[in-house]
Automatic annotation (TrEMBL):
Gene3D superfamilies on file: L,D-transpeptidase catalytic domain-like
Domain L,D-TPase catalytic: 57-198
Transmembrane region(s): 5-23
GO biological process: cell wall organization; peptidoglycan biosynthetic process; regulation of cell shape
InterPro entries registered for this protein in UniProt: LD_TPept_cat_dom, Transpep_catalytic_dom
Organism the protein comes from: Acinetobacter bereziniae LMG 1003 = CIP 70.12
Name the record gives this protein: L,D-TPase catalytic domain-containing protein
Protein keywords: Cell shape, Cell wall biogenesis/degradation, Membrane, Peptidoglycan synthesis, Transferase, Transmembrane, Transmembrane helix
Pathway annotation from the record: Cell wall biogenesis; peptidoglycan biosynthesis
Length: 199
C-alpha cells in the first residue's frame, strides 16, 4: 500500500471519530425542523384583544408532550413547543439533577436581560420541595425559568435564531421556548400568574 492511500484512510478515520464526538456532545442543539412546529404566532392586535377579553389566568406545562399552554380559565388561548431539563422525567429533587419541577407554582418575577433572551421566574422551590430536599440532605436548587432558546448576543448576530428550538431537551431544569414565542408569553402573562407543571 502506498503512503497516500494509508494517509487517506487515516484522515477519513479521524474525521469519522471527530464527527461522532461532536454529534454526541452537541446533538441536543440541532434545530427542530420548522415543519414540526405548529404555532400561529399572534399579531400585536391579537395580543391586545386577548389581554382585554380573555386575559391569561394560568400557564400549563405538559412535560411529556413538550407543550406550554396559556389558559383563560378553561379556554386554551395559545400553545407552544418547549424543551426541558436534560433529565426530564420525574420530580425535581435537588440542584443539578437536570429535572424540571412538577407541581403548582407562581410566575413571580421576570428578567428582561436574561442569559436566554427573556425569562419568567417559576417560584420553585415551594415549602414541599424544601422539606423533601431537607429530608434527603440536599439543596433543592432554584432559578427555574421559562426562557428563550437563543441568547440576546446570538440574536444580534443571527436574527433568524428567533425561531430556533433545539431538537432535544438541554436546560438545567428550565422550560425553554423559541424566542419568538417567549415574546408572546412575555406580553400575555403577568407576574403573579399560576403555573401548573404536569408529568
Amino acid at each position: 500500500m502506498n503512503k497516500k492511500y494509508l494517509f487517506s484512510i487515516f484522515a477519513i478515520f479521524i474525521v469519522m471519530i471527530a464527527g461522532g464526538w461532536f454529534y454526541q456532545k452537541y446533538n441536543q442543539f440541532i434545530p427542530t425542523a420548522n415543519a414540526a412546529i405548529h404555532v400561529k404566532n399572534l399579531s400585536q392586535q391579537d395580543i391586545t384583544l386577548i389581554r382585554q377579553n380573555t386575559p391569561i389566568t394560568e400557564v400549563k406545562v405538559y412535560k411529556s408532550a413538550r407543550i406550554v399552554q396559556l389558559m383563560h380559565h378553561d379556554q386554551k388561548i395559545q400553545s407552544y413547543p418547549m424543551r426541558l431539563g436534560f433529565t426530564p422525567q420525574g420530580y425535581k429533587v435537588q440542584e443539578g439533577d437536570g429535572k424540571t419541577p412538577e407541581g403548582q407554582y407562581i410566575l413571580d418575577w421576570r428578567n428582561p436581560n436574561s442569559a436566554f433572551y427573556k425569562s419568567l421566574h417559576v417560584s420553585y422551590p415551594n415549602q414541599q420541595d424544601l422539606a423533601q430536599a431537607k429530608r434527603l440532605g440536599v439543596s433543592a436548587g432554584g432559578d427555574i425559568m421559562i426562557h428563550g432558546s437563543a441568547t440576546t448576543s446570538q440574536i444580534e448576530k443571527m436574527p433568524s435564531l428567533m425561531n430556533y428550538l433545539p431538537r432535544n431537551d438541554w436546560t438545567w431544569g428550565c422550560i425553554a421556548v423559541r424566542n419568538v414565542d417567549m415574546d408572546e408569553i412575555w406580553k400575555l402573562v403577568d407576574d403573579g400568574t399560576m403555573i401548573r407543571i404536569y408529568p
